[in-house]
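Thread: "does anyone have the structure for this chain?"

Original post by V.I.:
We have the sequence but no experimental structure in hand. Need at least a predicted one for the grant figures.
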Amino acid sequence: YPRPIAMISRRSLLLSLAARPPIGIAFLGTSHSHGPAKVDTVRANPAFRLIGVSEAVPNRPDVPVLSREAILRDPAVQVIAVESQVRDHARDGLAALQAGKHLHLEKAPADNMADFRRIVELARRGNLLLQIGYMWRYHPGLNLALDAARKGWLGQVYLIRGAIGNQLDAARRPDWAEFKGGNMFELGGHVLDPVVRLLGRPRRVTPFLNKHGQFRDTLADNTAAVLEFDNAMAILHGANLQPNSGRYRAFEIHGTNGAIVINPIEPPAVTLDLAKAAG
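Reply from O.Q.:
Generated one for you, tokens below.
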């Protein structure tokens, strides 16, 4: 028989965590829109020691700037966070893993599947942790919705709907237009990720990548995707033209016994509507 697990008090646990040396972390890039806030988050967390960044953080002269080579070589750096421009994510992520570092990789993790598969394989081969910047994996509303579906509360799931948009500043549109997928490439992963977590790989995906904004660029700013599974479908939408967009970001799972709706996603508000009681 396995040995029983010893119970540990909260005080003992906190003392144990406090006794551990902080994790050395450095950043390759800070130019991604999430980069400066993640630097602040790391600095405020006593579990980490910020060793340096490879790009200066605007208005933060107190953050040490190191060369890319120094960060990759330094044995004190256990984790590298990649917060560079999207076009450089795969290059920087692969460099971190090749240097034997655990990796937090900002979304999108690559701009092509071949590079992303190389990243995953290298992390597995080196027994290194790989975390992608999809924060909603820790979202209580989304995890409740997925749990309800998996436990059968909703009956047979036949439809998922997801919406995520913003009102993108005109000056940022050329950067987003660099990739054919536009809004769906940049933001769609947040609502695509829970779909695949629940339903797996779709048998067919039909994209709709439209430019409907009156701007002199090529950004696909009104986008949708339909994912078809054997017994269900998912409809995802994202636009860069939406004022007050946070209020209308939503995720819904519909089944033969009811639905669970998260609207808005942040801060989370969840409605569970069942034909027959469950859960």
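V.I.: this helps a lot. The radius of gyration is 21 Å.
O.Q.: and The first strand starts at residue 23 and ends at 28.
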